[in-house]
Amino acid sequence: MKKRIVRQLSFFLCLALSSCGYPSSISSIDSVSSSKVSSSILITRGKYSNPLTFLNRTGQEYFVSCADPDVIKGDDGYYYLYCTNTYCEMGNLGMAYDRGPIFRSNDLLSWTWTGSVFQGHNEDGNWGTRGAGVWGPSVIKVGNRYNYYYALSTWGDNNPGIGVATSSTPYGPWTHYGKVLDSKDSGVTNSIDPQAIYLDEQLYLIWGSFYGIACTPLTDDGTEVYYGLDSLKNHIHWLINDNTVDGEMDVNSNYEGSYVFQKDNKYYYLGSQGSCCSGIDSTYRVKAGMSDSMFGPYKGKDGLSLDNKEGTFGELVIGPSKQIAGVGHNTIIQDEEGEFWILYHGYEINSEKPNERTAFIDKLLWDDEGYPYVKDQVASYGADIDGPAVIEI
Question: Could you tell me the CA-to-CA distances from 217 to 134, 203, 210, 213, 221 in Å, in that order?
């Protein structure tokens, strides 16, 4: 699956940052001291209060608009967060527009910019519609490399697509391969919101937004569709069928921001419904379906598939509250004690920037029928609570 976090018996840290291959221009990590190699592991939990914290290169907290977050644990023991293009402090460059920002953390709670997928590669992100943004990335370890999948789209784009870049580290440098597929190649309307996932040894791409959720196999290195673009339309499996009528979508009964993961012998589909981008008026929420197969069908407690208009369209995982609006487009990661955590974006209503999305985290709980949810089905807010279990670095 996308986040294969294995409990480690031992691990080794770099003795100096230069040996890790970090770009010398990134001053946001210059103050990180060397760590001694230890045969023992200390598991710790930090305290946090949503939303998550972003720190500049001097360690001061500042606001980062972080939509569509994705997180992976690197081989160096740190966590890396990727999100839709945004303005942030890019190390020595200061505040700037970053098409592919990368942030680093040792606890999943406080994040500092550590690199960019598109810095120095601006033209590599221009293979699609002119002026397209880089949205909703998904990162996965493929062999000895990290693959960064991203949507390239404008609002109302009639031919958005999915691209890929690869690196030997989670922070770069990146080799760009450009387009993997687009809507014309696949026949999937609104080809955005990728998720890369393994089923056994086969790598798959899941994608789609409000017009059904599609899936197709990728090549071993993950840079192309397995059967080629000319045959792609004949090799698509629908996790959730396009149930629109005459092409008229309903954001309250369709899904985007898909995330599939496995727990025990079940597969779970988490997707976002509602309006994502109307500031504090956004109705975004995450709902879940369960299946015995990665390919579905995913069903709610009513026994009906998520595309069945006679059903409940799955079970609510997290929805908006009086404090936090527009919660959705999540990722899932397991901590070092095996607990599942959901990272997602939302709008903090009573903040200085209420109409900009930023990142949140909460622990997933499980009901008696095996469906995931967060406590009270809303974002935790206003109280320090225990965060994920992590290895102290």
Answer: 23, 6, 21, 14, 11
